[in-house]
Design a protein that fits this description.
single chain; alpha+beta; four-stranded antiparallel sheet; three-stranded antiparallel sheet
Length: 233
């Protein structure tokens, strides 16, 4: 009986990929690795990157900063709101006190002294002269009753221009200060309506309604001229 030896591999053929380690190559059933084989280098452990940590710390810091700014802004708004409220309350109190305060009394203005009406002043030195005296009332057919008071008036034109004479240009003032306008055509001796030339004069009555004591008569040329007064004698 003859002894059989294991068949040697053909090293000229393609060898299978080596899966062993340098320290302990994987043994194959068909023999040892070829000479000079050192095996694949051991895998290196992955490096831990610090970028993720930096990003995480940065995000956490931004969140904290935002929260801090929001807290400071809320505190500032609360303080300013309290100040505005206090200011509004103070302004309301000031307005209330101003409304309840008594108004300052303004000094009374002194009324300027008014000059006496020109018709109350006699004009004895002017170109027109007026004289008057009491007379009896002479009732005409147009008079309603006898409750009238008449004054006999004489007017003289000593100027250089003619003047207009009309009963409506006369008023009679009584001793109580009341003025009476002329009642037309109630007295038969009423003064005429004429243009009085320079150097002329005319007489007639001026009659007022009611019974009174006449004090003076006032004549105004054309109602717009200077008044001339004549006291009743």
């Amino acid at each position: 009986m003859s002894q059989q030896y294991p068949q040697q591999p053909d090293w000229g053929q393609q060898q299978p990929q080596w899966q062993g380690t340098p320290q302990q190559p994987q043994q194959q059933g068909w023999g040892a690795p070829p000479p000079g084989w050192q095996g694949a280098p051991p895998p290196q452990p992955p490096r831990k990157s610090s970028v993720g940590k930096v990003i995480g710390f940065t995000a956490l810091g931004l969140v904290g900063l935002i929260l801090l700014i929001g807290f400071i802004g809320a505190a500032a708004d609360s303080g300013s709101g309290g100040d505005r409220k206090a200011d509004s309350v103070s302004a309301a109190d000031d307005r209330k006190e101003a409304g309840n305060a008594p108004a300052a009394e303004e000094p009374a203005e002194e009324e300027p002294e008014q000059e006496a009406p020109a018709e109350d002043q006699a004009a004895s030195d002017g170109p027109v002269k007026v004289t008057a005296k009491k007379t009896a009332f002479a009732k005409s057919v147009l008079a309603e009753g006898s409750d009238y008071t008449s004054v006999l008036v004489t007017i003289s034109n000593d100027g250089d221009e003619p003047i207009d004479v009309n009963p409506l240009y006369f008023t009679v003032t009584d001793t109580k200060g009341s003025k009476h306008t002329a009642e037309l055509a109630v007295d038969e001796n009423q003064i005429d309506t004429v243009d009085l030339a320079p150097g002329e004069n005319i007489s007639g009555t001026i009659t007022g309604k009611g019974t009174f004591t006449p004090e003076y008569v006032t004549y105004t040329d054309g109602l717009l001229g200077d008044p001339v007064r004549g006291d009743v004698s």
